[in-house]
Design a protein that fits this description.
With 154 residues, this protein is of the alpha+beta class. It has a single domain, classed as Nucleoside Triphosphate Pyrophosphohydrolase (Alpha-Beta Complex), CATH 3.90.79. It is 16% helix and 53% strand. It has two helices and ten strands; from the N terminus they run ββββαββββαββ. Strands 1, 2, 3, 4, 5, 6, 7, 8, 9 and 10 form a ten-stranded mixed beta sheet that branches.
């Protein structure tokens, strides 16, 4: 099972988002964990590689199971660990092979095109206290089939 870590940088009323070229969807910067790497280390490394900035005051905000199904058959499954940072240092890349980076209002998380599970977890990360846990089931075209969400307070 693949492990993915992403990080949502929040400064004031803005979030740093990456717009992916394939679908035009917005995501928090992140990517695959390397062997022997902690989820915390992976989130920071992937964020730095994709943005050119260093996050500070990094906290875990969500742990999710993502399942892709073809009818009832599971065709892919991975774990997603979502972190936030309330401060970053450096000058962001404008565009990389991963997509276009820019600061956007927090409210844009409610309307920008993205996978529905990403919207759920990024809105929680941006607005709520505690940690969220969940399972999202999608079709192979990333249409949400179901979601199960739980949360705990810090």
């Amino acid at each position: 099972m693949q492990r993915i870590a992403n990080l949502l940088a929040i400064q004031g009323n803005e979030v740093l988002l990456l717009q992916k070229p394939r679908r035009g969807w917005y995501v928090a910067p992140g990517g695959k964990m390397e062997s022997g790497e902690s989820i915390y280390e992976a989130a920071i490394r992937e964020f730095q590689e994709e943005t050119n900035v260093t996050p500070h005051d990094v906290h875990l905000k969500g742990v999710y199971t993502m399942v892709i199904k073809n009818n009832e058959r599971v065709v892919d499954e991975w774990m997603l660990y979502t972190f936030i940072a309330k401060k970053v240092e450096g000058t962001i890349f404008k565009e990389t092979r991963e997509g276009k980076l820019a600061w956007h209002s927090i409210e844009s998380l409610e309307t920008f095109p993205m996978a529905q599970g990403d919207r759920t977890n990024l809105l929680f990360a941006a607005y709520q206290k505690g940690i969220q846990y969940g399972t999202f089931e999608y079709t192979e075209d990333f249409e949400l089939i179901s979601e199960k969400i739980q949360s705990s307070m810090e």
